[in-house]
Write a structure and sequence with these properties.
The chain is mainly beta and 314 residues long. The protein is built from 1 helix and 25 strands.
Length: 314
C-alpha cells in the first residue's frame, strides 16, 4: 500500500516520520556521517505504523523495537541486529446501501439462511452493517439479491430496485488496453463503447496513490480523464454487476462517485458511492438492461476503476 505513515521515535521522542512508496516501503536514511540522518547512531529504535481510519492490523506488529549497531566499513556505518517484518493491515468489511422504496420497508441480511442484521427503513434511509468475508443474501421487502464480500467493503447502492440475475458476468480487468502504459479506452474494447475514460498502468503517474492502491488485479486500471465525466455505452442493453472503485488521490478522500444509468435516453437510476484512496469499495449495483452509464465525481477528482463485471448482449 502507498502513503501509509510510519513514525520513528527514540526514547519516546519523535525522530522522523515517512510514508510508504509505490512498493509499500517506508525508508529512513541511516548514516554515521550525515548529521541530519534520523538513524545516525547505535541504539534502540521503535518503528510504528500509523493505521488509517477504518483499518486494523492483522499481523500483531504495528510497533516494532529494533537495535541498531555500529558496523565499521558498512555503507551506513550502522546496521540492524534483526530486520523489520512486514506489517499486514486490512480494511474493516461492511455492507452499505440506501433504501429507495417509496413506502416504508424492511430489509434483512442473511448468511447461510440465518439472519445477520435487520432494519425497518423509509425512503432514502442508509444502512451499514459490519460483516466478515463471505456470501450473503440481502432481502428487501421479500425480494432477495446476493452480496459477496471479498477483500473490500461493499456498497450495493440502492436497495429496493430490480437487479440482474446472479453475479456470473464477464470481468474486464483492463490489462490489454494500454501497451505503452496509457491509452484512451477505445470504442469496441471488451464489447463496449467508452468516452473520456483512460486505461493506464497503475505506476504510470509518478507519486500516484489511489492508482496503485486501487489496482485490484494485474497492473492496469481505468480512470476518469482529468476528473471529467465519462461514459460506457452500447447499442444493445447490457448489465453492470460489480466494479471496484477508488479515489485517485488522498486529497479527495471521501469524494463521491455518481453513476447515472440510462435506457436509451431515459434516466432510470442515479447512484452515489463514497470513495477512498487507500482501498477500493466493491460497488455491486447489479443493474440490468441499460444502454449507457455516465460516471463522474462530485468535485471532479479522478476516480480509479478496476475489475468491471458486466453482461453484454451480441
Amino acid at each position: 500500500m502507498v502513503n501509509i505513515a510510519v513514525s520513528l521515535p527514540q526514547n519516546r521522542t519523535p525522530v522522523a516520520a515517512n510514508r510508504t512508496n509505490l512498493n509499500g516501503f517506508a525508508n529512513f536514511q541511516a548514516s554515521t556521517t550525515l548529521e541530519k540522518s534520523p538513524l545516525s547512531s547505535a541504539g534502540n529504535y521503535e518503528f510504528s505504523t500509523l493505521i488509517p481510519r477504518g483499518w486494523r492490523v492483522i499481523t500483531g506488529n504495528q510497533t516494532q523495537q529494533r537495535e541498531l549497531i555500529a558496523i565499521v566499513g558498512s555503507p551506513a556505518g550502522l546496521g540492524l541486529v534483526k530486520m523489520l517484518t512486514p506489517v499486514g493491515i486490512t480494511r474493516n468489511k461492511f455492507i452499505r446501501g440506501t433504501y429507495l422504496g417509496e413506502m416504508d420497508g424492511h430489509i434483512e441480511l442473511q448468511q447461510n439462511g440465518k439472519p445477520v442484521a435487520t432494519a425497518d427503513v423509509t425512503e432514502n434511509d442508509q444502512f451499514i452493517w459490519s460483516v466478515k468475508r463471505g456470501e450473503y443474501t440481502l432481502i428487501t421487502n421479500g425480494e432477495p439479491r446476493p452480496v459477496v464480500v471479498g477483500d473490500y467493503p461493499v456498497d450495493i447502492g440502492l436497495a429496493g430496485v430490480p437487479v440482474a440475475d446472479g453475479l456470473n458476468g464477464r470481468k474486464i480487468d483492463f490489462e490489454t488496453g494500454a501497451p505503452t502504459g496509457l491509452n484512451k479506452a477505445p470504442n469496441g474494447y471488451a464489447g463496449l463503447n467508452w468516452f473520456n475514460l483512460n486505461i493506464m498502468r497503475s505506476d504510470h503517474t509518478p507519486g500516484s496513490i489511489g492508482y496503485a492502491n486501487g489496482t485490484t488485479s494485474g497492473n492496469h486500471i481505468l480512470y476518469t480523464s482529468s476528473g471529467h465525466p465519462g461514459r460506457i455505452y452500447a447499442d444493445n442493453p447490457f448489465s453492470l454487476l460489480t466494479v471496484n472503485l477508488s479515489a485517485a488521490w488522498p486529497g479527495s478522500e471521501g469524494e463521491e462517485a455518481i453513476f447515472n444509468y440510462y435506457r436509451d435516453d431515459v434516466l432510470v437510476l442515479t447512484d452515489t458511492i463514497g470513495l477512498s484512496a487507500y482501498s477500493p469499495i466493491s460497488y455491486q449495483p447489479m443493474i440490468e438492461g441499460i444502454t449507457r452509464v455516465e460516471i463522474s465525481t462530485k468535485h471532479y477528482w479522478q476516480m480509479v476503476i478496476d475489475d468491471l463485471v458486466v453482461i453484454t448482449n451480441p
